[in-house]
Amino acid sequence: MRTYAGHSSAAASNALYRRNLDKGQTGLSVAFDLPTQTGYDPDHVLARGEVGKVGVPISHIGDMRALFDQIPLGQMNTSMTINATAMWLLAMYQVAAEEQAQAAGEDPAEVVRALAGTTQNDIIKEYLSRGTYVFAPAPSLRLITDMVSYTVADIPKWNPINICSYHLQEAGATPVQEIAYAMSTAIAVLDAVRDAGQVPEERFGEVVARISFFVNAGVRFVEEMCKMRAFVELWDELTRERYGVTDAKQRRFRYGVQVNSLGLTEAQPENNVQRIVLEMLAVTLSKDARARAVQLPAWNEALGLPRPWDQQWSLRMQQVLAFESDLLEYDDLFAGSTVVEAKVAELVAGAKAEIDRVQSLGGAVAAVESGYMKSALVASHALRRQRIEAGEDIIVGVNKFETTEPNPLTADLDTAIQTVDPGVEAAAAAAVREWRENRDADPERRDRAAAALARLREVATTDENLMEASLECARAEVTTGEWAQALREVFGEFRAPTGVTGSVGLTGGAAGAELSAVRTRVAELGDELGEKLRVLVGKPGLDGHSNGAEQIAVRARDAGFEVIYQGIRLTPEQIVAAAVSEDVHLVGISILSGSHMELVPEVLERLKEAGAGDIPVIVGGIIPESDAAKLKSIGVAEVFTPKDFGLNDIMGRFVDVIRDSRLTAAAPA
């Protein structure tokens, strides 16, 4: 039983973890901030506004020591949501455990072999949905392969990869796509480990036994429960037939769940509680496909960062189910159900067909590089949005039963979510500079760090396992940014396909009529101005959750706008340069990480400096009302949040904002 947690600093997160463990939490699930996830130190330009926001910053071994102070790692089960830099975080975790063992007079090697937990380490889904990749697929797969091979031999209780269909569903995947793309990722990883030859053939079953999955559970209870049974069936078949694993225990489908966040609503957020409970039941009721670990979001996640009390509420939901109900006492309740068997068979057949399609393209890596999987997810998500707008998919409190009594939980929105002290970033940046300066002031420590980084770069050019070189970097006090930069120099960086090049379109019904009306308005204003309306959709900072930006870009194109969308991880300077060079009529900024109050003002200021201060800027994301008011007061034309689900309405507002800005500019003084 876990809650996904971490923010501000290692010391603050350590206090939160110890408090949660005292409340009965049985494992830790560490959220890292975006600079840590993408390999930057807190003082890097791209880290601006992102330090400590969506997780804890871990810049070096000193931070890792502080994060787990007084938490014995040899007795803990720790899940780390980390991907591109997973090897680095595992290296620091191991070194911290060794230091704890030495301080306690224990054998460090024994403690390391006892370490239990998971590094997420699924880079394929990062290209498709979450956006915290750094390197191209091939070197990224090499890092994963090295970690799998190392942990099987040296940390046998560790799950080196947690294949994540969770984020695929968040990006719009249907159950069939969720199963198929997760299995395709597993095939790519297992094939790579097998072909690398670091693990003896007779031990390959141990590799399979260490592969775990991280799955989403949406509110469609029966379909989600059947999806898990389909996963179990397909994994058993795949590992038996493709990899020849004869031990049924090694073939077990081992999965944890974070129930769906995509379906959580800002409108009437109290409804999220029953959604979370239903989703938890979908992965616990069926014993033959029951999750091994469950973590639940908080009711107010669509509003902002949950507080400790909100996390406690989610933990108590699990505890009531486990200790008050009799749900865990019986054999599978659905065995022999013809309804369930038929639905599982349908999902298995659909998933197999999609797996075959991915394999025919050359496998998961090739399907990422070609943009096939990303485009498929963007299209699925667009269709889901259309069904919601058309009222075909009902979301209580959003497109039906919208009237509500005043909500006491959100009466004071500024206290209904956790906020991060604005001084956190400056403190972290100063601390990492001090760490590097103190290290380099000692010639012996400086030389050891330099030698460790040189060795890391050298090993990266060979087929040698990179884990030992990373462990030496951790012991030599290298920083996260230094480790990642060394590998960037060898592997380069990568920009994944955005998936928004096509057009989905709307046909029929009220939603189709609304889109047609907006298209007419776009064309009329374009004719009036004598040019096609151009919109730039930008994602500044390190926030890689691009689903909303992609849907805006797709719908804007369908509405007749010319759309400039360059993907994730742009600096305000790059966004402004693109806006000026493309001579756009509107700039749309999408931020979900909480860095809007740092990055949006910088975009506005740079537009003014470039002589383009008349280009209106709108902002979308998880933005509290008080912040929205502040943004509007400094010149933002409009702020959209998750409650603004009608994309055609948003497109109409685009037209209004452009018209207002151009008419104001053309008005006589």
From TrEMBL:
Assembly and binders: Heterodimer of an alpha and a beta chain.
Read off the CDD domains from this record. Answer: MM_CoA_mut_B12_BD
Classification from the root reads:
Bacteria, Bacillati, Actinomycetota, Actinomycetes, Micrococcales
- Give the protein's cofactors: adenosylcob(III)alamin
**Tree of life domain:** Bacteria
Q: Keywords, A to Z? A: Cobalamin, Cobalt, Isomerase, Metal-binding
Name of the protein described by the UniProt record = Protein meaA
B12-binding domain: which residues?
Answer: 532-661
Q: Could you tell me one molecular function GO term of this UniProt entry?
A: cobalamin binding
Q: Which PROSITE patterns match?
A: B12_BINDING
- Kindly indicate whether the keyword Transmembrane helix belongs to this entry: no
Give the family this protein belongs to, as stated in its UniProt record: Belongs to the methylmalonyl-CoA mutase family.
Q: Where is the signal peptide, in residue numbers?
A: none
Question: What SUPFAM superfamilies does the database record attribute to this sequence?
Answer: Cobalamin (vitamin B12)-binding domain (SSF52242), Cobalamin (vitamin B12)-dependent enzymes (SSF51703)
InterPro entries for the chain: Acid_CoA_mut_C, Cbl-dep_enz_cat, Cobalamin-bd, Cobalamin-bd_sf, MeMalonylCoA_mutase_a/b_cat, MMCoA_mutase_a_cat
